[in-house]
Write a structure and sequence with these properties.
By secondary structure, the protein is of the alpha+beta class. The chain is built from eight helices and seven strands; from the N terminus they run H-H-H-E-E-H-H-H-H-E-E-E-E-E-H. It has three domains: 59 residues, Winged helix-like DNA-binding domain superfamily/Winged helix DNA-binding domain (Arc Repressor Mutant, subunit A); 46 residues, no CATH class; 91 residues, SH3 type barrels (Roll). Helix 4 runs antiparallel to helix 5.
Length: 237
């Protein structure tokens, strides 16, 4: 864990407690030595964080202290909320819930004068009706993509043919009516796309694919550009 991240966790830990927290309890939760914990607290106090207490007794965060608020422009807040509303309507259940939680977290730390631009944003994600539902756990698929695990799928083609493939999933493209898995297919020895609603069964295999996911995604994008003249998947660089 980076030191900056650890210092932030120290502050977040203290914010959760109204009573003093012992250094030993904090060190155990943060999985660091007591010596490291004491040094971190001393550094935070030097930087002006109002931590009161002492070694052997416990520590408490002084009232009125908070992390600096997230500073957004109104256009940025509207963009964030529009994206979150879109995900709430079109994402899988876990992703939709994460979008709602994200909006709540942002709203908690926003200054009061900016909250209306988040919660009362006039930008609406239009409703839609998905014609067919997924039979697989898309959240498990997303996890496999993040961790670069191979996946075995039972798939029904547009013509109705049934096939079993081992794929290296590298991304999911979200459309209004469906979701598309972007993957390297071991059977076809090339990039292929698979609609999630046509996957009858999915198994995440214990084997990881070796080539980096980002490198594979770049290769796929280059292939799309060469074949269609289109930019491929829109992602932030």
């Amino acid at each position: 864990m980076r030191r900056a991240d650890r210092l932030l966790k120290v502050i977040q830990l203290l914010r959760r407690h109204r009573r003093p927290v012992t250094g030993q309890a904090m060190a155990e939760e943060l999985e660091v030595s007591l010596r490291t914990l004491y040094r971190d607290i001393a550094d935070l106090i030097t930087d002006g964080v109002p931590i009161r207490g002492e070694a052997g007794v416990g520590y408490v965060l002084g009232e009125g202290y908070d992390l600096p608020p997230l500073m957004f422009k109104t256009d940025e807040l509207e963009a964030v909320m529009l994206g979150l509303r879109w995900v709430q309507k079109r994402g899988d259940p876990d992703l939709a819930r994460a979008a709602a939680d994200t909006a709540a977290k942002i709203g908690t730390v926003l200054p009061a004068h900016l909250k209306p631009f988040l919660y009362d944003s006039p930008l609406i994600a239009a409703p839609f009706n998905r014609s067919s539902q997924d039979k697989i756990d898309v959240a498990a698929l997303r996890k496999a993509i993040r961790e670069q695990y191979k996946v075995r799928i039972d798939y029904r083609t547009e013509e109705g043919a049934q096939t079993t493939r081992t794929i290296w999933p590298i991304g999911i493209s979200y459309y209004d009516a469906n979701r598309i898995i972007i993957a390297w297919c071991e059977l076809r020895v090339g990039f292929r796309s698979f609609r999630t609603d046509r996957v009858a069964h999915l198994d995440v295999l214990p084997e990881k694919y070796v080539e980096r996911r980002k490198a594979l995604l770049n290769k796929w994008q280059q292939l799309v550009r060469e074949e269609t003249g289109q930019p491929g998947l829109d992602i932030f660089s």
